[in-house]
Amino acid sequence: MFTKKVKSRIFFLFLSSILAAIIIFTILRSLEENVVYFFSPTEIYNKANISFNKKIRIGGLVKINSVSKNETSINFIITDFKKEIAVSYNGLVPNLFSEGKGVVAEGKLKDKKYFVADKILAKHDENYMPSEVSKALGKSNN
Amino acid sequence: MFKNFFPNKILSLTNTTINSLVVLLIIVVTIGLIYSLLISPPDYIQGDSVRIMYVHVPSSFIALGCFGFMGIASICNLIFKIKFMSLLAKSLAPIGCIFTLISIVTGSFWGKPTWGIWWVWDARLTSMIILLIFYIAYILTWKIVDSFEKANKISSIIGIIGLFNIPVIKYSVDWWNTLHQPSSITLTSAPTIHYTMLVPLVIMFFGMLIYTLIIFLMRYKTEVMKFKIDKKKNYK
Predict the structure, then answer these.
(1) Is A90 found in the same domain as A63?
(2) In whole angstroms, what is the distance from residue A19 CA to residue B128 CA?
(3) Candidates A17, A97, A129; nearest CB to B44
(4) For residues A126 and B194, what is the distance between their CA atoms, to the nearest angstrom?
């Protein structure tokens, strides 16, 4: 069906594609620590060697009823429903920051359970709906 | 037969076709904009900033789709040496590049009110920048390299290498922890966007698709004409 030349080109391209895919896969795999934008509390808990001086990001959901604010700082708990990390932060939080919603905190770990953040980002999920629908859903869930 | 058929067919494309497509574009985009900016409701947490989605998501789709086509065309071009495949890819490149840029810019406009930051180096955003670099490299190859044969080969290789980036962009939000939210529209499950917001999104997508088609047809026709003129010149 194909001429010999075309066949050899297909073969060459196919082989080099597989090779390239393997190389990219290995690179991304070994760089996983750098590619992930944040660690979940469970990942922090399972990590063997954490440097407490390096800036890292942790992310998860803001635990419900965990946010406490005073004049200068805000304290809350980031949870992934398995492990939790307490976070304290001085500054303004984004508008979308709220209990039960996603959050990413950048800063330093004091120990595996306590984190001092110097930047808070809100992470929203992939659900979009009008507020009436959300209220109706909330009612039917309760 | 297929080889000669397509480039000649495009030369018979008249302005009437283009004009009727432009009329269609204006109608669809007007309906899409009215629906997305006025009729569709604000989001339950994001409020009105969700309206950026109606531009952001379709442009990202088209940016990825264009490069997908270019990559496949590049493969066909390298293997079967079909010239018009590279002309196809060449005419698609600037459109995809612009939509990548629109996607990145609107994305950062959306990021500021929702995430609280314009830009982060998470996997999705970084891979999108890489896509932009591939687009620019592709376009520049055609601009800088003088000989058609050489430019054809180099740009095809760029197209094929860049093709690997497409699944990385698509699945970056599933493979790694990212600040960017996961996809709302997937092939395997129902969309997680309420239909009052999904309808304007789909209309806007079709609007941008028609725009892409118009620009593509016009560019492709020009490229084919240029190619034929160059060929005639070389014979003399």
Answers:
(1) yes
(2) 23
(3) A129
(4) 11
Identify the contact set of chain B against chain A, taking CB-CB distances under 8 A. Answer: 41-46, 50, 53, 75, 78-80, 113-117, 120-123, 160-161, 164, 168, 176-179, 181-184, 192-194, 196-197
Question: Out of A16-30, A42-56, B1-15, B122-136, which region has the weakest mean confidence (pLDDT)?
Answer: B1-15
Interface contacts (A, B; CB < 8 Å): 111
Which neighbouring-strand residues pair with A58?
A39, A105
Query: Considering the entire predicted model, what is its pTM?
Result: 0.90
* Apex B84 CA angle, B80 and B89, nearest 5: 100
The domain in which residue A10 lies consists of 1-35
Residues A65 and A26 grouped into a single domain:
no
The per-residue pLDDT for B32 is 95
Contacts of A120 in chain B (CB under 8 A): 116
Domain count, chain A: 2
State yes or no: pLDDT of B217 exceeds 60: yes
